[in-house]
Amino acid sequence: MDWTIEVAILPVTDVDRTKAFYESIGFNADHDHTVSDEVRFVQMTPPGSNCSIAFGKGLTDAAPGTKNRLIVCVSDINAARDQLLAAGAEVSEVDEQAWGHFVYFADPDDNQWSVQYLPYRYGQG
Fold this sequence. Notes:
Structural class: alpha/beta
Largest sheet: 4 strands, mixed
């Protein structure tokens, strides 16, 4: 039996601003459904991922910006950094460690992300 992680919930203050941010960095908008005046559900998926993020209204009691360290993997850390910069995201320089290369950014509510490149997955390490 497979156990898969499908969705991580992000606490946000402005659903439309957050949706626009994630669209600008290349996430696909899978769902945007207003259930009631109290509930709106937005689900977005990074290109090539089987796991999505969700945010909206009435989905979590967590304070916006408290999601600390979601990780997304890429096959080219420099291209990922360039894409984030082109979208206007504030992104770190590449942090090269023995086990992988990383860049860091945050969404408009300061939910934190690590983008990781693992050289051994791509014959580079």
